[in-house]
């Protein structure tokens, strides 16, 4: 095989808690993660020579070492005794950038998975997750996705029962939020409201979509700068359009709502898309390798 295409699924946080700041500057987290059908497509082609080449359909994204997908290929090659002379990576982007949807991490994870298949390297998913941890905190989760509890920096992963079938609407405001800025604000916060992560896990065990949706919570929403008021408004609009619950994902700025079924989500996305340019209907995607291509 000389070429293949991998899907890179967007990640949502059904809950997000920041525990302590660690001596290494990172924070210990506790998060319930979910992959959804909104995805980039990552095409890999092994070449005899030429090093790593990257192009993406978003012209403003870096197409060199600054791009995590490029660094994923470089890291994977460093693990091989005989790496190929060249690799062409071509990314069809759909996941909004600067949204808290882990688009860059998902692309990097897709490169790791894809190279493993393309080059017949035979690494296990757990090995790919460990490699991913050297690229970024969200990359290990993105290797296999699904419904997982993530702790530590985000790299300690535990399978959870799948999110019951439902529809999802994702809305990304025009602005983005800098991740380190929000972590800094969380360190200064006064209150101590915590998401009911254990309650979400119980609701997943019971197969209760409503139980998950009404407990969704992200501590970063408590510390949003005033200029981010649109996030609260979008959350309200999602609920007004029939979402069972709505919350910001990661460090934002995207907000999503869970709907009883994909058709309800599609109708809501059509309405919300009139005022929010980046608005998508999606559905949950199961953990790889159960996921069908
Ligand atoms: O790991 P990654 O490069 O994605 O993290 C980006 C930034 O987010 C880090 O430099 C750090 O400021 C913050 N971060 C954190 N704790 C985590 C994950 C990320 O403080 N668990």
Describe what this molecule looks like in 3D:
- This protein has 293 residues and is α+β, with helices and mostly antiparallel strands.
- The chain folds into two domains: 157 residues, Ribosomal Protein S5, domain 2, CATH 3.30.230.10; 116 residues, Alpha-Beta Plaits.
- The chain is built from nine helices and twelve strands.
- The strands form two sheets. Strands 1, 2, 3, 4, 5, 6, 8 and 12 form an eight-stranded mixed beta sheet that branches. A four-stranded antiparallel beta sheet has the order 9-10-7-11.
- Strand 9 and strand 10 form a beta hairpin.
- The two termini are 17 Å apart.
- The mean pLDDT is 96.
- The structure holds cytidine-5'-monophosphate (C5P).
- The site of cytidine-5'-monophosphate has 11 residues, from strand 2 and helix 5.
- Cytidine-5'-monophosphate binds next to strand 2 and helix 5.
């Amino acid at each position: 095989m000389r070429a293949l295409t991998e899907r890179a699924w967007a990640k949502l946080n059904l809950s997000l808690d920041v525990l302590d700041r660690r001596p290494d500057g990172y924070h210990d987290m506790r998060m319930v993660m979910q992959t959804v059908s909104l995805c980039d497509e990552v095409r890999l082609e092994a070449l005899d020579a030429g090093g790593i080449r990257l192009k993406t359909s978003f012209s403003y994204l870096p197409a060199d070492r600054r791009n995590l997908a490029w660094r994923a290929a470089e890291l994977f090659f460093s693990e091989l005794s005989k790496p190929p002379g060249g690799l062409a990576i071509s990314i069809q982007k759909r996941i909004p950038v600067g949204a808290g949807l882990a688009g860059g991490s998902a692309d990097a994870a897709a490169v790791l998975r894809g190279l493993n298949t393309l080059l017949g390297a035979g690494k296990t998913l757990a090995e790919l997750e460990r490699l991913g941890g050297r690229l970024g905190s969200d990359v290990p989760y993105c290797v296999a996705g699904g419904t997982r509890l993530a702790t530590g920096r985000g790299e300690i992963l535990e399978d959870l029962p799948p999110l019951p079938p439902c529809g999802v609407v994702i809305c990304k405001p025009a602005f983005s939020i800098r991740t380190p800025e929000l972590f800094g604000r969380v360190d200064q916060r006064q209150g101590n409201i915590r998401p009911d992560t254990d309650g979400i896990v119980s609701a997943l065990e019971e197969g209760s979509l409503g139980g998950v949706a009404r407990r969704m919570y992200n501590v970063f929403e408590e510390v949003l700068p005033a200029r981010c008021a649109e996030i609260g408004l979008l959350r309200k609009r999602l609920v007004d359009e029939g979402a069972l619950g709505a919350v910001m994902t990661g460090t934002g700025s995207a907000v999503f709502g869970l709907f009883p079924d994909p058709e309800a989500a599609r109708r809501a996305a059509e309405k919300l898309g009139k005022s929010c340019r980046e608005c998508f209907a999606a559905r949950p995607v199961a953990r790889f390798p159960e996921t069908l291509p």
